[in-house]
Structures are given as structure tokens and as C-alpha cells.
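Pasting as-is:
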Amino acid sequence: MYCSNCGHEISDNSLYCTNCGAKTGTTNIRKGNKKKIFIPLTVLVLILGMLAIIILNKGGEAGQKYFNTPEAAAEYFVKCINKNDFRGAIQAFAIEEKVKNFDFVTYMEYAKMLNLAYITSPEYTEYDYLNTLYLQNNASNKIKALIFNLNYNNESDNPYIQVDNRTDAKEIYKAFDPKGIELKLEMMDYASPDYQDSDTYREYKKRDCKIYGYTDIREYYALYEYEGEDYLSGFTFVKYKKGWQIDSLYTKLGGTDTIKIVTPIDKDDYIDLKYE
């Protein structure tokens, strides 16, 4: 290189010009392979770090789980709950597919009213992130309700609990503790088979498949065992081309609580219910 002060040719690594003594502005660069290796590794670490953050926060299609059967989806969900793997549990829900396939115009034709929870279409992909958050929030609230109502003895039919004092608040707070959950899925049965196989229900399925892009819908009763007690719950599963996913933790066909998610039940009563 050349000195910027006098123009004299000097070594590339010189800190000062050997002719005029002017500072060259060059920092002390070490020779050898260390410098060449250090820069690429730093860049690589930064890139990998950024990719990890993107993957963890995106919650995108790569994180979605698909299952060959509704039973496999339910078993995976319960396993995630027992491990406190709530990210994994959320991945079993039909979220990304629902956002991508939702037909707003068809929904409005059937609903006859505006629901601001859903404003999306292939043309308005800017809303995809907001709609994804909305569906993730719905799923997370149902998971929290499941854990809370397993741990809290709410004998009232009213799912909304009144808090009168600090002691009540502390007891409620403890009921949200997910540690030590050992939930067992004892039974899962196709709910009200005569109705689900009826023309009326087929029309309902046809409508929802058109709105959300499903290829099939199935609703199930579920019997959980937790700490020696039996609990009634349910699942609604939806199918996309890649497989089955969870739509909700209840069935709309009756018997299950859409807010509490789980309610105590005798096993004999469950058996009677599934054959109604």
C-alpha cells in the first residue's frame, strides 16, 4: 500500500510510514489463519443465533404437527401436557393451516355478521400474524383452563369464580401450577355417531370445510384420569392434506364444558354418554 501523506510505498501491515513517519490508520492485524477463521465463525454464530430466534418465535408451518389419526393427535397432546411442553401442545392445533385457508367471504355468507377475530384472505396476508396470535391465544387459554380445573375443586356449574379474599386468590394461583401433572387419557370415543353420520351433520361439515379448508371433521368424547378421579372432556379434530390436527378441546355435540374443558364424571356415566 501507499502512505496517504507522502505517497511512499510501505508494507500492508505498517502502522507508520517508514519515509515520513505519518500514521497509516491500519490496526494491528495478526498474520496467519486465526484472523481468517475468526471472522467467518463470528458471522456464522450470529446467523445461527438469528435463525434460532426466528424459528422459535415464528411458530410457523415448520413447527406445526400433523397426525395420521385423531387418536395419535390426542396422545401427543396429553404427552406434551404431562411434560409441560406447552409449545409442543400448541403445535398440535390447526393454527397455520386455518390462517392460510380461511375464506372470509364464505364465512360472512353463513355467519351474517362481522367477526373481527378473522380478517384474512390470500390477498390480505398482512393479517396472518395477528390471526395466528389470536388462534394461539385461544389454544393457550384452553390449556390453562384444563390444568386449572384439574387442580381446582370448582363444584359450581358456574365456570366464573368469585374471589372474596387473599386466601382464595392464593388457592386459585396454586391451581395453575402445571408441575406434577400426570394426566391419563383412559378413553376417547367418537361422539354421537348417529348424529355425526347424519345428513344434517354432513351439511355442517361441508360448510366448515369450505370456510376453513378442512377435508374432514370429527368430534370425540374423552375420559381423563387424574389423581384417582375421572374427568369428562372432548376433542374436535380437523383434517388437512398433511394430516389431522386439534381444532378444540371440547365437542359441540353436548356433555363437555367449553370453558372448564374438564368436569368430574363417573366412568359409568361416561359410558352412558358416549352411547347416547
